[in-house]
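Issue 218. Parser rejects a valid record. Input:
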Amino acid sequence: MKAKKYNRFKLFALCSLLGFASCNDFDEMNIDPYAPIYDISVIGGTAEGIDIDYTLSDAAMESIRAMESAIGSVFGNFVYEGAYNDYQITTNLTHDIYSAYFANNVAGFQQNSPTYSYNDGWSASRWRHFYDDRTIGEYSQLLKTFYFCDKEYYHNAFYITRIYYAFLISMQTDTYGDIPLEYYVKGMVPPSEKVNYMPQEKVYETIFALLDQAIDQLGKTPTGKQYNLGDYDKCYGGDVNQWLRFANTLRLRLALRISNINPSYAEQQGVAALTHPAGLLKDDADNMKLTPKYSYNDGNENIYTLLYEWSANVLMSQDMEMAYKNQSTILDPRCEILWWRPTSLDDLNAKDGPKESDKDFKGMPIGELPKGKTSAETYSPSRVLLTQDQHILDPLHWWCKAREIVWLGYAESRFLLAEAALRGWQGIGKSAKDYYLDGIRASMEYYQINQTKGQAAINDYIDGLKFINVFDNGSKEEQLEQIITQKWIAVFPNGNEGWAEFRRTDYPALANILQNTSSDVPQGKFIKRVRYPDNESSNPNKPSALQGDRVWWDVADTNNDNGARVTPNNFRN
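Output the parser choked on:
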């Protein structure tokens, strides 16, 4: 990672960063629109730890104070773009397909990342957004403002920012493995272009330290007036209790992530989350999500709706089809509100209403040659109703431009509890089976199945679960397979999490892709990480990691050298 001063001198760039409707807002702020957003110069500071151990130069403080009135907009962009920036190329064409949520339907992408080939532009975009935009351009600005302008007044905002940054770090390290993090985590820029890469084990320790400190400090809000993020916080409106519940649930998610590689440390972190008085996500109102700007000012669209509008760029995967059809004796009712039956796009988008076929839902094998628009006649596209007002959240046609995307939800939290119970961690109130069933119900209710199809549809699905007996007489491994498979269904379409959990547990049992065009993922194997951007090659500290190499917490290959699935062992310790 090349360290650099993040100075934007162009007015349009500054407008964009702060989310202003027009650059006339600068008149009200009384600042020079061509000045740098802030001066990064600091005095002192070390690479180790997470605490702010430096001071700012006079020039830096002047820049910080000049931008203080716009800090809410910076936070708003930070949490909005954090996991969403350039989503198609940074996530949908990689993580969403590697998790087997979607199959690619664009011929021009076929010999690219969807079939494991490396695309430097796409990896570089994800890398740039995390470091240049989120870390240096926003996180650093937020930390310095909240800490140095008025530490007590901005106390809660400071630690809320830390929680969200810990969330962003987790997705970055799970994508690449070892990453540069020293200095950056403190809001500093490394003094050398040849920055160190922090081992992923240490990255996780840093994430847990950030969460632990933030959770502790949010329970110690100073007396006196506090800055309220309010409408700038589209996640929780500045509600400290909701941020605490998210932080605890994220901590539990990541504790389970490392349960195979470091079970004692994982349990320590998991129990800390489970026993904290603020608790975990308590309902769907606590979901960490992105609400598209389309829903409140006709800005960015929901990317999955947009992908459908672009002639069904992605389709249901064959793995999703099998999960919907094989978990219960009846079709998963979530399938019917998330996907169309294979149908001509012209018929689905007809002005007088969709004319859906009577074909069975069908998923496309990953790696099959796309046929563009006509593929929707063979495979199921996302259930988007383009002829309706895209602000309407219609539960019978789930996707629309205003539809939220959940990054960590209540249903997932129930499955996390199920696995924690299975592992015997303290602080669990019910059995793994009970939490597993709670997770299924929570996912169904999130999709409003109880309202659109009736409670009976949920009960029929649960009564028909084919593998429920493993919770009474099966092994822990068999129980975990059911927990993770249902969690994978519920976490859809969050490919960041779906791919990470597949690599960790090797569940669900996904099919091998039909075509592997990679030069660094062995044939018959699954991709295990995204390669570092090529511009990192000039840094001698960059690890030599190929896309077939497992990250730290991924303890075993999914397949053997012949491409046959290996029986997972998630309870080896």
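Fixed in the parser; the record now loads. Residues 1-38 have pLDDT under 50 and may be disordered.
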